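User: These chains co-purify. Model them together.
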Amino acid sequence: MSLEGVHRYIDEHRSEALDILRDLVARPSISAQDKGVKECAAHLAALLGRFGIAAEVVPTPTQPIVYGEIIRDPGGYTLLCYGHYDVQPPEPLDLWQTPPFEPTIRDGRLFGRGAGDNKGQLLAHVLAARAWLEAADGPPINLKFVFEGEEESGSPSLGAFVREHRARLAADLVYISDGGLHPSGAPVISLGNRGILGITLVAQGADRDNHSGNKGGVAPNPVLILAHLLATIVDPSGRVLIDGFYDDVRPIGPTEQALLATLDYDPVAFGATMGLPTLPMDGPTYWKRIMLEPYFNVNGFVSGYTGPGSKTIIPARAECRIDIRLVADQTTRDILHKLRRHVATVDPRVQVLERGFGTMEASRTAPDHPAVRVVAQAIRAVRGTAPYINPASGGSLPNVVWPRDLGADHIGVPYANADENNHGPNENLSLERFYDGIHVSAQVFQALADAAAAGILPRQRARGGASR
Amino acid sequence: MSLEGVHRYIDEHRSEALDILRDLVARPSISAQDKGVKECAAHLAALLGRFGIAAEVVPTPTQPIVYGEIIRDPGGYTLLCYGHYDVQPPEPLDLWQTPPFEPTIRDGRLFGRGAGDNKGQLLAHVLAARAWLEAADGPPINLKFVFEGEEESGSPSLGAFVREHRARLAADLVYISDGGLHPSGAPVISLGNRGILGITLVAQGADRDNHSGNKGGVAPNPVLILAHLLATIVDPSGRVLIDGFYDDVRPIGPTEQALLATLDYDPVAFGATMGLPTLPMDGPTYWKRIMLEPYFNVNGFVSGYTGPGSKTIIPARAECRIDIRLVADQTTRDILHKLRRHVATVDPRVQVLERGFGTMEASRTAPDHPAVRVVAQAIRAVRGTAPYINPASGGSLPNVVWPRDLGADHIGVPYANADENNHGPNENLSLERFYDGIHVSAQVFQALADAAAAGILPRQRARGGASR
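Assistant: Joint model of the two components:
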């Protein structure tokens, strides 16, 4: 009865929800440029307060976190909703049809920087909670909200924040809506992400460029040094040859293996989005490689002269930029150590430089976690179709903080349309998908409450103690 | 008696020689920019004519060649002096102490673009011939002059010109003064040059950059494609692994091997000029690698994003620019064929693009050619010290046209100071080295005449027929 009322409330308050979203998107909060982030945090905390959600702005050494909570029963089931209110820089501005911070509705979408990533999605949780507060006597579970202000800058303070406030943040599950639905519009659950380790390999030959005629044969060539090194690091099939690299890769379980076969796959269509005529692999292999296997990538390489004409030099220096995508339970620290050891053995002339920014750990929730089925059923109830369940996504997100620093499992349920253009010009959020998201959150709260009451959901061991 | 008079004439006409050089350097003749080349050719031909040398400007499809000759005895020994009157572009202009085409004397040097490379050096031959014409009854051998107007642009028409005028150009030896003396000022003879084959390897993965998280594991990485290919082309020691690559390398003869040991070598000083603390090899090895062995060089490599920050992409494309330095009797055509075959076998995804510009063949005159000793003795008579004899130089020059297209051996005797700064700002020619050059040319004419009379010099087989 009360759930019906909540959904009705959401339907009846669509236009107000849209106004709230527009107002939020209109506030620039660009962490990379430190523009308007703190102002946006204050606005968001005030908004939560206006809805009856106890909220505050918690400073960190970098950008503040907006924290809110609705505690119905201190010992009851608790869901933590994570999102981020900072946005990517909007540049290049001339590619936007309408200005990025003047949210505009066209074709059933709200255009504006941050509409989908992540303001519209975090707001869905807040508006669902509000509907529960207004149309019933509050949500059926405890809710906690952690809205970060620098996800687009690598979440530098999130882990420390969670560790410091571990007792207060204690939760049974962390729920994250970020990214897009399936291109068909079908819902998706994502159970984790790959990690990322960014490094740069630098080979220095002589301390200056040399004439390749006058010195060719006696001066070392840094490109060839790196080419030979790379050939010892990864084989032509992509398999990494570093000693112990695969040691900690979490085995793919039977449920994960089964899920891979359920995922949508079309080798021609998928190849086309990537820029290849087709893909020389089957669906489970394709998804396994992206989701559950590590990958050694070179994202940039530069040496010598590469402008018009040519310059017959032996370059002094070559630089190779790498990102290694890791999977649970590999760690960036261990892999960096093993890579350094490999390079020191093969060619100590090559320097391994760590790129601090953007390093993230892999994280993966087991697909047979009981909450997965519960959330999937809630999604189906709202959307009328079962979600694809991704054992992980190929990209990297700061999800590891939840199991590592809070001791809680996490589940990802994106709400945005697949073509939200996050990070690009003309970012947008489909209004229907926005309203769907509010309904899904509201439904998920109820479904988790029911399942918790039935005793089928794991509860976080009370590591935080005091708060539970 | 007449040789002494010739040397005296040269000494007495230093100031006039310098005026002639200044006037020639003041005339821009920049082949790369097609600036003033034809005007300079006309001036040079007129200058030869004024000295009593039959001269003309011979058009080619590109820049004209100035041809001159003094035929004393149609069946007699004939020396062809090759040089080039075009110059490198003078930019960047702001690095010149005085304007490049306003020749200026400072510290006993003439500063100006082309002073050393190659106007002062070609003029030395002309002024030596003039001294023989004025102070004696003409040079003791037949002289032919070929002064090219586009050496700095890769000599695109020289080969065809020589083939077309083969009968008229027929000569027993070709004499080239270009480049610099030993840094100590000691004289040098160079018996050849390495060839050069410029190619670009291009690996195309997908037709666009892909997100390394979302596609890492399923999209091909073009940098790794090229790294693996390069590792099959050359081993870590620099040895080329292409099938048949070394087949045509001319064996190093005992005279060449002996010469390598006579060349100046200091591993610390030589390393320092290159930008290395020292060199891990002995002198004969050092010189052998530069002069008599081929070398596979990567002079540029670019892929993906290499600006500030980082971009986690799988690049669509990687480009590797290569110059292969070849030695006699390898040919660029054969090596290109073998490289293409290798690439097609190892990884047909990689394209091999030929860079037409700058391709040159290797060429090497045997060090026991009787003219080498004759010329060396002539140099010693003038300079008071024996020349270093380089079996070849490491760089690439269009010398192959002489044996290939004319059937004549060639010998290089540079006249410029080692720090002439050719190709750079503040190019200059030491006045003493300029006057030395005139004396050396005059002395060489006599020495060759004497040796030819003694029957110890090989004569060109009369391939040209008609002219001999």
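The domain at 195-249+292-354 of chain B is CATH 3.30.70.360 (Alpha-Beta Plaits).
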